[in-house]
Amino acid sequence: MTATIPQVAPAASVADRPMVEAVEVHKRFGNLEVLKGITMSVERGQVVCLLGPSGSGKSTFLRCINHLEQIDAGMIRVAGETVGYREKNGRLHELREREVAAQRRKVGMVFQRFNLFPHMTALENVIEAPTQVAGRSKADAKAQARRLLAQVGLADKADTYPAQLSGGQQQRVAIARALAMEPEVMLFDEPTSALDPELVGDVLDVMRGLAESGMTMIVVTHEIGFAREVGDVAVFMDGGVVVEAGDPTQVLVDPREERTRAFLSKVL
Ligand code: ADP
Ligand code: MG
């Protein structure tokens, strides 16, 4: 299927642009339309929490931001650049694989399953992409990795293998690993859903610290407390559309839409 790409207005200065802009994003898998026109804007330093029932398209939307999925229509920009395309003379040209990879580095992603390399220590996991992909020197990457492991509360686990770490510790290594590429925005896809309840708090604390440091974040989570305390905006999605979005306390405590209310009564 060929994508329908809207004509673009001349770019404002990158710094004036939202960090992530999605306009009327459509995505289908065969006959199944999973995203039915998602429009969303995330300002620099903002934390947007995305909630919605299983199958509503949350993960697919995050994957589109990272160009892990190609959208069928609409537009996504990250840090002022159109995802998957280059603007030239008011027209869009598809990027080559290497250019897509460069664009993807602006976006850090943390999944429900941490997927650390099992044969590498925590430190080796964190330095892998900086040394192998970004071409940074091993000494630099190691110094940075030690700082990041300290930031996620794992300064003493640098030489530990994933199997010797709890799920929560592994997830914090995964966060440090994503941060090592110095992304402009971090995407979290249900980062605490696979964890034992007593391990969730430490991971949320790391995410809270990251938010306080000014990182732009989109967080798919059903942790209502986190969304209310840390989120600047809560977005409720269902069936591939944004049902409602706004102040987290309003959306999560006093939703306008019946669909939001019904969902919340199930997760709370
Ligand atoms: P959520 O993260 O909100 O649970 P997803 O984005 O994972 O939802 O999935 C939305 C819908 O898209 C689901 O019906 C899912 O089965 C379908 N889907 C996701 N990825 C694919 C794929 N690669 N191929 C076919 N269908 C998919
Ligand atoms: Mg999902």
TrEMBL record:
CDD domains linked to this entry: ABC_HisP_GlnQ (cd03262)
Catalytic activity: a polar amino acid(out) + ATP + H2O = a polar amino acid(in) + ADP + phosphate + H(+)
MF annotations from Gene Ontology: ATP binding; ATP hydrolysis activity; ATPase-coupled polar amino acid-transporter activity
Subcellular location(s) per record: Cell membrane
EC number: 7.4.2.1
Membrane topology classification: Peripheral membrane protein
Keywords assigned: ATP-binding, Cell membrane, Membrane, Nucleotide-binding, Transport
Organism domain of life: Bacteria
Keyword Cell membrane: yes
Cellular component GO terms held in the UniProt record: plasma membrane
UniProt keyword Cell membrane, yes or no: yes
Listed Gene3D superfamilies: P-loop containing nucleotide triphosphate hydrolases
Xref: PANTHER family: AMINO ACID IMPORT ATP-BINDING PROTEIN, L-CYSTINE IMPORT ATP-BINDING PROTEIN TCYN
Full protein name: ABC-type polar-amino-acid transporter
